[in-house]
Every structure is written in structure tokens, then in C-alpha cells.
Amino acid sequence: MKLWQKEGVSTSEKIEKFTVGRDREMDLYLAPFDVLGNLAHARMLASVNLLEQAELVDLERELKVIYAQVQAGNFEIEDGIEDVHSQVELMLTRTLGDVGKKIHSGRSRNDQVLVDLKLFTRDRLELITKETKRVFDVLVQRSEQHKNDLLPGYTHLQIAMPSSFGLWFGAYAESLTDDVALLQTAYHFANRNPLGSGAGYGSSFPLDRQLTTDLLGFEGLHYNVVYAQMSRGKTEWMALTAIANLAQTLSRLAMDVCLYNSQNFAFLTLPDALTTGSSIMPHKKNPDVAELLRGKTNRLKALPMEVTLVLSNLPSGYHRDMQLLKEILMPAIEEILDCLDITAYMLENIQVKTDLLEDKKYDLLFSVERVNELVIEGVPFRDAYRQVGKEIGEGSYAASRDLKHTHLGSIGNPANEQITALMDAQLQGFGFERVRTALEALIQ
């Protein structure tokens, strides 16, 4: 029977297939978190005398057995079982009988799935943040390695002013600090406890919601039980917004790699192991990794709007529409983790071309340097600008490649130390250690 099924009432196979959808597949992601939520809920029930101490001992023992099965990859949702919550409760009831049936006291499947999703999202945002830091570290390392290797800077895709590979790599590193700030916002929202809100209207049992908050390592509660249920969808949207923001950085980086790797730019090369060939043109070495990275991350940017459309015009309270959000969130998390991994690998193996700006075709990149030289000599800027423009027009302009960029964040001073300090400060704000300590205590 389903958790919600009544005696003598059945649902047609057609309706069951439609309403369950991909839930059994998506719920496998939630299995370890459902067990953790059950452990915390059981301890809370015992603390308010809704479970005997001996019953709590039995439940904790069996839940830890199930948790070990999940961690070993041996957990499955059986045929005919609707979701992970039903499967765990069934396993407890098979082993413990009536004691297993008591685990649902003071709880609805609504707040059970919501706490599972909060725990899952919190966990995956930590993984995404750590993988983002891995990419960040590679970018800073490459920036330092190539801070003296010049690169054409562009505006409107026309050569503009001198830049450097140090600035190029470092720019994406600093972009990731902003992306981590948004990941942190999403993390803090996922790190609030909805358990005890029931179906969205609380319970007449004297539930200790602060206890489950502490046991699960949450930093706080969704206090109002109605709003706790309203946070469903908002949690997913905020996580996907942070993922989409990160995807924006990665997609722009991927586009740069595609552009800079082409023969007409020829600023960098990808080693053979990172390229593919053509079925007809023997000379081709295609940047498929960067192209697929661009495509995958561009798709991720659309997902917050997909959640917005699922939630459009829903009133307060729970609605089954929200089940569909799992199918948006969970694959997106796997995708961004894969994209971050391949980005780090690509950046580690990119080969930079040096002495690019020695080519005469880049002479005009240094026109501003010529203007600045005149300004230092005492010529007013507007007059110096006109003079250099006239020199270019008459063909008398001579480029000086003697760069004197020293200010913070410039070619000569890319500020990688300050950018690293900014990232470190962002990472301090998550509180990963507090969560880890709480969950380790819960599962011991």
C-alpha cells in the first residue's frame, strides 16, 4: 500500500504511472537523506515521549543498516513502491513491525520530501562549491604562470588594447568568486529546516523542531509552517539560479577557448587528446570539449525559468506540480559537476602561445600607450588623442611596446593574491564543518 492509501481503495495502473512519473528514479538521489531525516525525527519523537526508548534504539539500529546499504549502492526502490519514503518505511516495518509504523507520527510526506530535498541540495551545493574552487585554483595558477605573456584585448571584436593571459585567466577566477557568493546564498536557504511543518499546517503533537534542526546541522528553521511548504520550489529555484550563474561563467570561458583556438586567432592550442578530427578534412583538430561545454552550460542557464514556469500562479500550500522540480534539479546538478570537472582538465592542459604581440598587425593595440606618453610629456589628453589619431591616419604612427601598467588589477599587477583572499572569505561563510559534524554524530 501507498503511504496515503486507504483500505479498499485502489488507483488504476494508468493513473499511477502518470502520477509517479520519474519519481522512483529521482528519489534514489534522496535515499541517504531520507534516512538521516528519519533518524533525526525518531530521536525527536522519543524526546517528546511519542516513542519508547527501546523503540528508538531499534529504529536507529535499522535505519543505520539501511544507510549502510545506501552508501554501498545496494539500496533500491522495489517494484510497486511509490517513492523512497515508502521504501524506507516498508523496510522498517518488515523488520520491526508496529515500531516501524510509528516513524511517521507528527509528519507528512510533504515535510518529509522537503527535508530530504533541503539536505540533498545542501550537500550538492557543497560539492559544486568545492569543484568551483578546484577550477578557481587552476585559473589562478595559470594566471601567475602567464602574467607576462601578452594577449590582444578586444572590444566589439576589434583589437583594442594590450591584455595578457594572466589577466584572461585571472578574470575568470574573479568571476568565480561572485558565482560562489550566489552559491552561498542558495546554500543558506537550503540550510533551513522545514521538518515539523507536516502538510503545511503543523501538528497537535508537541514536536521539538529545534531539536531536529540541531541534529541535522541546519543553521535555522523555516518557522512558519505554511511558509515552510511554500519554500518548496523556491529552494530549487535558488539552487538552479546559482548553477545558472556559474554556467554563465563557464560558457563564456568555453566560447573564448573556441575562438582563441581557431587558426584566425591562434592564441592558444588544445593538445591532441582534447580535440577530435574531421571525417573528410585531415587537417582538422576540433575543440569539441569546449563546444560541448558551451552547449551544456548554455542549457543550464535556462533552468531557473523552467522552475518559474512550473510554479506559475500556484497558490500557497502543496501541489503535485512540485514533484516535477526533481527532474529539473537533480540532472542539472550532475551536469554542472561534470562541466566543472572537464573545465579544470581543459584549463590544466591548454597551451598558451607566447610573443603574440610582436606581430606588426597588432601595432594599433599600443595607440593608447602612445597617447599616454604624450600626456606624461604635458600634452592635454584630448590634444594627445587627436595627435595620435592623425599619426595613424597619415601612416606616421610608431607603436611603442614598452608597457608600464602597474596599478592594481592591471597587466603588471593582476591582483591574484587579493582575488584569492576574496574567494577564501566567501568559502568561510558556508559553515560546511558544522554540518559535517552534526551528520557524523547523527549516523554514528
Question: Can you offer a commentary on this structure?
Answer:
The protein is elongated and about 95 Å long. It folds into three domains: 13-104, Fumarase C, Chain B, domain 1 (Orthogonal Bundle), CATH 1.10.275; 109-208 and 223-358 and 408-443, Fumarase/aspartase (Central domain) (Fumarase C, Chain A, domain 2); 360-394. The protein is mostly helical and 444 residues long. It contains 17 helices and six strands. The strands form three sheets. A two-stranded antiparallel ribbon has the order 1-2. A two-stranded parallel sheet has the order 3-4. A two-stranded antiparallel sheet has the order 5-6. The model has no long low-confidence stretch (mean pLDDT 93). Keywords: Amino-acid biosynthesis, Arginine biosynthesis, Cytoplasm, Lyase. Residues 26-299 form the Fumarate lyase N-terminal domain. This is Argininosuccinate lyase.
Quick tags:
mainly alpha; 3 domains; two-stranded antiparallel ribbon; elongated
